[in-house]
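Question thread 4412

I'm putting together a teaching handout and wanted feedback from people who do this every day. The idea is simple: show students a protein as raw sequence, then show them the structure tokens that encode its fold, then repeat with a second protein so they can compare. Below is the first pair exactly as I plan to print it.
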Amino acid sequence: MLEIAILAAVAALVGWLMNRKRRQRSAAVAAGETAGVPCMLKWSAHGSRWRAGRLLIGAGPPVWKASWGGRELALPTDLRRTGTRAPSTREGMSINPGSRILEYASSAGVVLIAVMPDELDLVGKALESA
């Protein structure tokens, strides 16, 4: 019984910390500062795999920074949103199945960005205004 109580306390703490971080990112973008939103990127010009990283939005053009290696990629400036969808069963093996995929078309190819539903509006508005 004690284990269940400890597990519930840890789950509540993790939920609170994640919500706090999301609010900090939203406030930073609203203030015009750069914020890194965790996401997965799949860009046809750079291979066919989903890559983990952060989308740096806010001041300046949006840039994606890889989690491993720190490589930064500037996203195309001519992004046009073509849709939003849930991941397919196959994509759910590579990315979080609870995420949503933003589909964009550009002169450099199709760009797919997977973000959690809480960050969907933040990322969508930032990429549309860029």
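The second pair follows. I'd like the answer to focus on this one:
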Amino acid sequence: MFLLIQPGKVTLRTNDDELELKPMQNLVGEEGDSASVEYVYQLFSDPTIDLVCDDEFIFKSFDATCVSNKFSPPIILCGNVMAVATTNEGKTIGLTQQQLDIVLNELLVVVKEVDNKLTVVKAREVYQS
């Protein structure tokens, strides 16, 4: 299982076939539009959790989706984003229940953007199982 993070919502996805490269390319950024994927790592207390996004989201002018305050300045990702786990060998795998809870508690999701100001909530508040 993994999480699909979109502006204002977080959805549980249970089809691990979507963790293969081609399906991931069609999910991140804008669903259905094949993208180059970028892994963003070391944002969570569990270092095996990664966020996957469209590596060209800035150029594609996607809306802000999620924010990590682990670093200063905060990291803001745009477009559809996936929360996944990776093995020590770099293979993308699904999240455990404990990892899912970490993402829901530590990641902030954008619910509104007005005049370049973001309103965010914990991912758990907009989680849809």
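Top answer:
Good format. For the second protein you could add a caption like this: The chain has two helices and eleven strands. The first strand starts at residue 2 and ends at 6.
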